[in-house]
Structure of CoA ester lyase:
Amino acid sequence: MTAHPSPATALPTGGSAAPLSFNRLRPRRSCLAVPGSNPRFLEKAQGLPADQVFLDLEDACAPLAKPEARHTIVKFLNEGDWTGKTRVVRVNDWTTEWTYRDVVTVVEGAGQNLDCIMLPKVQTAEQIVALDLLLTQIEKTMGFEVGRIGIEAQIENAQGLNNVNAIATASQRVETIIFGPADFMASINMKSLVVGEQPPGYPADAYHYILMKILMAARANDLQAIDGPYLQIRNVDGYREVARRAAALGFDGKWVLHPGQVEASNEIFSPSQEDYDHAELILDAYDYCTSEAGGRKGSAMLGDEMIDEASRKMALVISGKGRAAGL
Ligand code: GLV
Ligand code: MG
């Protein structure tokens, strides 16, 4: 089969100094949350097949544990084996007193072994600009390559959602927009305590608008869109159902809070072998029909299906994701 150019092939991970446009396409099917204050979990996370790990200084880390957790994270980033994984640290949001110390300690201490900073509860573009400026200062001071560390922006309330497009375009460093359902549900008074599940009494999908708005901001700016956590960690069927919904819309991945969710996420956010094979057939058929030998036509038939330029674009997405997943 011909090798087709793809937006998501040859994806760098593990601190590659590739151009930013490539970093935005790192695989992030499964984004594993690990409390930065828990060395046992930090050890175990290294052996799990998650595409991304994020070492958390925010809500999984108690206020009194945060100062020590910063140093624990630096040690694990520098000494751990995170090969093949995108390495991210979630700092505290700008309304707290912890953010600057989180960023300075972690980036000065382990900036060369870190791919992105995740900023939670982002409400305005200025909050992204502030983080970008701080990162640039640290990179210059430390002699690191300027601009290599990316930003992942978490949308967790109504103001953040209203400003999501400005947030997405606030800095070249932004790689992903992440939906934070737990904080979001709380902030809009949604009548449910089960994160990721539909609130009782509403007959449709209560998350559709939020997910689509995040997805549009991401796609309009060539960023990735990531769905947040599902807290019923023993309910793998529930996880699968919620993950499938986000994957069907076009999201690139989802958080995993438990090893049991990793395989499910990797599978759900990869195309099936059947879809991948079909996409490759579409690309071959399109390449042939537009070639000299195929008559330079703009469309062709593949079985009962008409293939044209738009089909080629859809097939490229599936084919790129399939290759990234090793199909
Ligand atoms: C994640 O941070 C969430 O609030 O869902
Ligand atoms: Mg949150």
User: Anything to note?
Assistant: The beta strands are 30-35, 52-56, 86-90, 116-119, 150-155, 174-179, 224-227, 253-256, 300-302, 305-307. Residues 59, 120, 156, 180, 182-183 surround magnesium ion (ligand 2) (CB under 6 Å). The chain has a mean pLDDT of 91. The first helix runs from residue 20 to 23.
